[in-house]
Specification:
homodimer, 299 residues, alpha/beta, TIM Barrel, 6-stranded parallel beta sheet, metal-binding (chains A, B), EC 4.1.3.4 (chains A, B), HMGL (chains A, B), hydroxymethylglutaryl-CoA lyase (chains A, B)
């Protein structure tokens, strides 16, 4: 499988990142972050989440962020939506292009996270996806715990493939395969990716690795070799401050883009502008950026 | 090329790591570090350096460290030797098994580092290697700037291969190809490794990547796929504290071993004992370990 000439980078920092930062961030800062990322060349920027503010107070300003956002042409701003109420709130806030939904390939994780088995989770997801599609929205789906579960340990590859196929069949245009706990290594990542690509095709997949054990970039590389074309990452490693408790260890977008450009893949991203953005938002959060690249440039 | 079933990890923390740490470390701590690494299963542990104490005061206690060391059976303890005087000091200190020498593939780097061109550096190296071999010592050689030079930028692949072949011809049993500035990415790393393996054989090579730009593990993985069997790393990422000025960004041994075991490669290393060692030495240095693994385990 030749490596993709163009790799699309999906920026998840404003949502997945800021949601996991200890510091509450004003809507105006979120808006500036999203706009800077657009100017740096990102073409898919997950902007916010319509999860209940009771559960995720960091995202309570979702409507305000969207209302204030100066949208750039050609950029998609998916928002995370957990259920029908979330979809309704997103639509009231003016979301007209794209949402993201989520489930896990692990029963134990789904039970802890949304109090449902994998099958129940898929049943709940179906009407959300159907209503979104009926409203003309594109739907992206995260499948988490694709390489392991913090509660049940191993997750059978067959289950990952089954869930991936199920959400593809619902009509999700892209399924992002996530190693939520960051435990996977390159060979397992590539095998998992290949099995899912065999089931739904490369053009329906993205990969989403966490750097908790330092493996994210090696895992991305292994998947690129297997034909992956879309990779999720978080500017400045937002959400993954190495010294924070409960850090999710998001892969830093700038470390990813540095590798992609080195591999000869085009991304459309201006790496200098991206590093500037990482340094700026890390300054706002009053912590060093969690990316190697931003730290190296700062020296 | 099938991936190696057994990968030998060469531990460089006590020398390459501690030499680049701001804090001066007592000989007793160095000795304990080396002994802990041996108990964790490392079979090649670079112990110290006989570079002039005028230039590298951190290693002025080289003889004391060697004298105090309780050697484990089956473990090799190479010491770095820059020239004939260093070799003489090493032999006086009782080194009877192995030394390590170094050069760079870049003229500009050699001129800044040892005031010699690449060819002059090789001329100076030849009698050191010859005398060491005559004394029954094995010789390992570092070839640095194999993927780029901080002073001249690009380093021609032909030069890397030429230098590698030259030191192999001198009789070095292993040549460690180093991306000194950490600028290389996976494809370039693999191509460089392959070209050198074509010249001298896989059994004569090791790879030595720095994590300055976060690429080390992806680069290692790419080289393993190309047949690499020996990888250098530094426990706790010693020498590469992410917030230190001038950090070399050494790849952390425990992050490497985690990946190797995940890939199904055996190493003979007890990962838990290794992480314990990383946390212990980081505590002595009063800084967080620079490895993702040790930080994740600490949470």
């Amino acid at each position: 499988m030749p490596m993709a000439e163009y790799v699309r980078v999906v920026e998840v920092g404003p949502r997945d990142g800021l949601q996991n930062e200890a510091r509450q961030v004003p809507a105006a800062v979120k808006i500036e972050l999203i706009e800077r990322l657009g100017r740096a060349g990102l073409r898919t920027i997950e902007a916010t989440s319509f999860v209940s503010p009771k559960w995720v107070p960091q995202m309570a300003d979702a409507a305000e962020v969207l209302a204030g956002l100066q949208r750039a042409p050609g950029v998609s701003y998916p928002v995370l939506v957990p259920n029908l109420q979330g979809l309704e709130r997103a639509r009231q806030a003016g979301v007209t292009d794209e949402i993201a939904v989520f489930t896990a390939a692990s029963d134990a994780f789904n039970r802890r996270n949304i109090n449902a088995s994998v099958d129940e989770s898929l049943e709940r997801l179906a009407p959300v996806v159907a209503q979104a599609l009926a409203a003309g929205l594109r739907v992206r789906c995260y499948v988490s715990t694709a390489l392991g579960c913090p509660y049940q340990g191993a997750v059978p590859l067959d289950e990952v493939v089954r869930v991936t196929r199920a959400v593809a069949d619902m009509g999700c245009y892209e399924i992002s395969l996530g190693d939520t706990v960051g435990v996977g290594t390159a060979r397992a990542a590539r095998e998992m990716y290949r099995a899912c690509a065999d089931a739904v095709g490369h053009e329906r997949l993205a990969v989403h690795f966490h750097d908790t054990y330092g493996q994210a970039l090696a895992n991305v590389y292994a998947c690129l070799e297997a034909g992956a074309r879309v990779v999720d990452a978080s500017v400045g490693g937002l959400g993954g401050c190495p010294y924070a408790q409960g850090a999710s260890g998001n892969l830093a977008t700038e470390d990813l883009v540095y590798m992609l450009h080195g591999l000869g893949c085009s991304t459309g991203i201006d790496l200098d502008a991206l590093v500037d953005t990482a340094q700026w938002i890390s300054g706002v959060l009053e912590r060093p950026p969690a990316s190697r690249l931003a730290r190296a440039r700062a020296r």
